[in-house]
Amino acid sequence: MSANAASRPKILTAAFLIGPATFIAALGVIGPMLYLLRYSFNQYDPMELMIETFTLSNYVEFFTSPYYLSAYLTTLRVGLISTVICLVAGFPLAYVLARSGSRFKNLMIIGIVVPLFVGNAVRAAGWMSFLGSRGLLSVTLMKLGFTDGPTDFMYTEGTVIVGIVAVNLPYMVLSLQSVLEGINRNVEEAAFSLGAPPLTMARRVLLPLALPGIAAGTILTFILAMNAYATPVLLGGPSFNMMAPLVYGQFQLNNWPGAAAVAFVLMATTLLLTILVAIITRQKFREG
Amino acid sequence: MAGVKLQGLSKHYGDFQAAEDVTLDIVDGEFLVLLGPSGCGKTTTLRMIAGFIEPTTGTVTIGGADVTRLPPWKRSTGLVFQNYALFPHMTVAQNVAFGLEMHKVPKAEIGSKVATALDLVQLGHLADRYPRQMSGGQQQRVALARALAFQPDVLLLDEPLSNLDAKLRHEVRHQIRSLQQRLGITTVMVTHDQEEALTMADRMVVMKDGRIQQLGTQRELYDDPTSEFVASFVGRSSFIKGRFSGGRFVSHGGLAVETERRLTGEAVVALRPERIHLGADAASDAGNTYRGRVESISYLGSSIDVEVKLNEIDSVIAQVVNKGRDSGASVGDEVSVTFPRDVPVFAASPA
């Protein structure tokens, strides 16, 4: 009785706390999503635009059309490669940050956060001025005599990956740093004193303990990369296709059912791979 | 097993001398305790032996081999930390096996060696537990088993008991000491707790400001401290400050004190509380006897601390055995105070 009486206000408090966010999410995210999901089973007609029906034709078209499939594979490839680069490049950086006792540590963290203040489009514009045929890199190479004429580094998959890595790296570093900071330095030293050289220590002790951070950073940067819009559009150019720009392109053609189907393939793929990462890391963490 | 030699070991950070000219010869099988307040250089010294801090000058020799420039993983030192530092993602058995794997012990032997090491600390039955499922005392015993399993040349203990509560501290303390004696492993322990040092060490080193103040057995350090710092850090002392003139010590408060050891100039006499006798029973020819007034009394259970003021400047604390209700004096009483002539005397520290 008394336990019930005590717990009832707690439940009320909890409901009060999570209520508003849940309401907004339900109204603003889940509702439209369900609507969009319904759209994806409708049929597109160039004249009537959308015919209410129930068909899988949009999805069938997606997985049979070379155009869509290539965009799908490009998105997966760019997402995976940029995430791996973020992890490999971000881990040492995050480690140094986490272990730094320097009074400049806060400055370093600010240095990592500041790029997040600049919008993706603005940053992509910066890359364009650097990588274009009249950009800084091309001109420098010419001046130094490495190349005879202007070189255009724009509009390649590599450029897009570089752009996405630059956008996503801070998220990875911050996710890793917070977890690495929680690992006691003495644990590393214990491994050293037991005869483990640095790389062995990192593999046997640091990485397993950092797995929650690795999972968080990987999932975060992967989702961001899969859904990148401004970077692939501006750095990849008109003939470079990734999923998010594709969704927008279909909407522009007024093909709502097609756009909805592409959007749901993108979302489902991202979700599946995210769950996969979560399961793998959880298992690894259990095994040790 | 091997002895450890530190030769002129120093570590400077800019102008700060974390350790200065530390020279020690730790005998094979010896239990040496580095004792001192925080910042005295004891941990720096231990970490230089382990290889985590590279000395500015000087050498570290383990078992006759110069290891000064070797990284920690190439030295044969088992290290136990204050916060246990067990690998949280490994079971107890995996923790203990880690060092064996790193030292390329054949797989077939690892299991039995892990079991042996865990039996040493009586934790064989918890081999499959994770550290988070164990108490602090158990974790520290696992850490000890892990450090000993690969049979290092030296065992290094960095404040191993400081995180344990009082009762456990006693238990683990005895366990470490008896294990160390049974295995005969050269051991260096760092602590700020003098009781730990007194009960565990073969020899102890008192450090201050990066320098060794005094090295010796417990008895040597307790009975013959060579500085005011050691006399106050190891055990308790009352200090009477004064100066020697004409071979006699006269305190600033005007007491003439006879001492066996004679110095010149400003000096300090250190008095252990249990060597000061109160009351009429004190034989006056046994040493120095004065009259004083009881200032305060602290009841400690088995003994009673009596603070006696001898004059405006000098006062001493005597420890009196608690003999029951009528034992000792009460505040305000006039008492006679006697202490022997063979008390430690040293030149006043410049500060």
From TrEMBL, chain A:
Protein name: ABC transporter permease subunit
Recorded topology in the membrane: Multi-pass membrane protein
Record's signal peptide: none
Source species: Jiella pacifica
Subcellular locations according to the entry: Cell membrane
Transmembrane segments: 12-37, 75-97, 109-133, 153-174, 209-235, 255-280
Family listed: Belongs to the binding-protein-dependent transport system permease family. CysTW subfamily.
Database matches in PROSITE patterns: ABC_TM1 (PS50928)
InterPro entries: MetI-like, MetI-like_sf
Domain of life the protein comes from: Bacteria
Any single biological process term in GO: transmembrane transport
Keyword vocabulary terms for this entry: Cell membrane, Membrane, Transmembrane, Transmembrane helix, Transport
Keyword Endoplasmic reticulum tagged: no
Domain ABC transmembrane type-1, residue spans: 72-277
A GO cellular component annotation in the UniProt record: plasma membrane
TrEMBL record, chain B:
Keyword annotations: ATP-binding, Cell membrane, Membrane, Nucleotide-binding, Translocase, Transport
Domain of life of the organism encoding this protein: Bacteria
Lineage: Bacteria, Pseudomonadati, Pseudomonadota, Alphaproteobacteria, Hyphomicrobiales
Molecular function in Gene Ontology: ABC-type polyamine transporter activity; ATP binding; ATP hydrolysis activity
Enzyme Commission code(s) on record: 7.6.2.11
Gene3D superfamilies according to UniProt: P-loop containing nucleotide triphosphate hydrolases
Record organism: Jiella pacifica
Gene (name only): potA
The protein's name in its UniProt record: Spermidine/putrescine import ATP-binding protein PotA
InterPro entries the UniProt entry points to: AAA+_ATPase, ABC_SmlMolc_Importer, ABC_transporter-like_ATP-bd, ABC_transporter-like_CS, Mo/tungstate-bd_C_term_dom, P-loop_NTPase, PotA-like, Transp-assoc_OB_typ2
Start and end residues of each ABC transporter domain: 4-234
